[in-house]
Sequence to fold (270 residues):
Amino acid sequence: MKYCIIISLCILLAACSTNKTATGTEAMPVDTIKVLTYNIHHANPPSKKDVIDLDAIAGVINQQHPDFVALQEVDVHTGRSGRDVHEAEVLAVKTGMHAQFAKGIPYDGGEYGIAVLSRYPIKEGHAYQLPSAPGSKGEPRALCTVKVKLKNGRRVMMASTHLDVLKPDTDRLLQMREISRLLGQAGMPVILAGDFNAKPGSAAIQVLDSAFTRTCDNCPFTIPVDAPNRTIDLIAYAPAKAFRVIEHTVIPERYASDHLPVAAKLVLVQ
Fold:
């Protein structure tokens, strides 16, 4: 009888150590972080002029259930999206997350910029203005950062950005160098995501790659939504040894915005 009990206990321990769910599939490591980056086109579906559909954007986010979302092209109290509407805060309520907004420019009586949504309470949030070359006609750009404490007590920083769109890429280079400098002072693992308005191999992305590790090598196209032909929406992290990439996915959601959302699953290993 004693030997039967010991054998049964060993079988039970072996079953638990496989880290499988009740359905028999492999469970995610406990330090897994899911990140989504999404240029939301101020929640205006391209097929519906002047319509603001925050429910559609929230639906995309809720379907993915991310820990962090980097948002670009976010309206706050603008005429076109509603004087009383703070899009980042509305999306936070609709997704059960916390929001941090960073203004890029004043627009239509309100503000227009970027944001981070976090599943975890935000311990510290910042908005940084990014540089432009003297005489540049580029639109002012920003970096939005949040520091959070994960369930295991470890701290990470999540950052969202949207680089300049004009050619040549002088402003993008200045902005990416400043982002690398700012995030290099974080003192903790950093995830950076956004619309870089630059393709892999370009000068700005070479600067990104010198300081961060992207979650994809041959990155799938992210824009335009109907027939994607280039990759400008990316997720990256630093230091390189801090994370392990489990998955990088471009989500085929073609109604809510003019960009495809991009998701990545990372394991925090250091």
In short: The chain has a mean pLDDT of 91.
